[in-house]
Design brief:
CATH architecture: Up-down Bundle
Number of helices: 8
Number of strands: 0
Distance between the termini: 14 Å
Number of domains: 1
Low-confidence stretches: 1-7
CATH topology: Four Helix Bundle (Hemerythrin (Met), subunit A)
Helix content: over 70%
Largest sheet: none
Strand content: under 5%
Radius of gyration: 21 Å
Length: 238
């Protein structure tokens, strides 16, 4: 690859200056939403102030679902068009989605301990969420251990698309099976005292999710540009 093309590729992969500003806005919105919801919502009748964990637990689950939807879309798009950037975007969303799924599980255990008396039960919602988490941990492990970029992208796209199918199973689990987990939480099912806090935190965490996926994608493009530079240097040295 000519040096001019390498320079052009490196510049194209460089993160835009607006990224840091967007990240600042996203995290400021999240802090403001948390402060608002904690200060304005009363203690819940049964769980007391532990209820406030909902303002992170529920939006984190929603953001995991959104992230895995992005994985599905761009995995299918990669299998169709074989575009490298689609693979990188799917992988970036998978990392973010796996992180939010892990956070959802951890917060759910903290919530479940006083509510159910145990840290973990093999409940339909918890078990299906754990399966989703393990699928995408496996997805990321696959990407780490396959060296060939094209093969890695193809296999990852297949796993990502199939794994994302588990999302509706997680979502519907409380309706399809008898479960300890409460029904779906949404603004329409909550006491009005908690509705605004949940909405604001969901919007703020959506901004954070967009920032995380975007930032990880920018890093992935830089990493791939470095790989291309190394490959070109190796070819030039032969």
């Amino acid at each position: 690859m000519p040096q001019t093309e390498l320079s052009r590729e490196s510049r194209a992969a460089a993160p835009p200056r607006t990224s840091a500003f967007f990240g600042f806005i996203a995290f400021a919105a999240l802090i403001a939403a948390q402060v608002f919801s904690i200060l304005t919502s009363p203690a819940e009748a049964d769980m007391g102030h532990l209820q406030k964990i909902m303002y992170v637990h529920v939006p984190a689950a929603w953001m995991a679902f959104i992230s895995f939807f992005v994985v599905l879309v761009f995995s299918v798009r990669y299998l169709w068009k074989k575009r490298e950037n689609d693979d990188l975007l799917a992988a970036s969303a998978a990392e973010v989605g796996a992180t939010f799924t892990g956070l959802t599980l951890m917060l759910g255990m903290i919530w479940g301990r006083p509510a159910w008396g145990v840290w973990w039960v093999w409940d339909a919602r918890l078990t299906s969420t754990l399966v989703l988490f393990l699928i995408f941990v496996g997805y990321l492990a696959l990407r780490a251990f396959v060296d060939d970029a094209e093969q890695r992208a193809r296999w990852s796209a297949a796993v990502g698309a199939i794994g994302a199918i588990n999302v509706p199973i997680v979502y519907m689990s409380v309706k399809w099976w008898r479960t300890l987990h409460q029904p779906q939480s949404s603004p329409s099912t909550l006491d009005p005292a908690y509705t605004m806090g949940l909405r604001l935190n969901a919007i703020a965490l959506l901004l954070v999710t967009i920032y995380f996926i975007r930032k990880r994608y920018e890093i992935a493009r830089l990493e791939r540009a470095v790989e291309h530079l190394a490959e070109a240097a190796a070819m030039g040295g032969k």
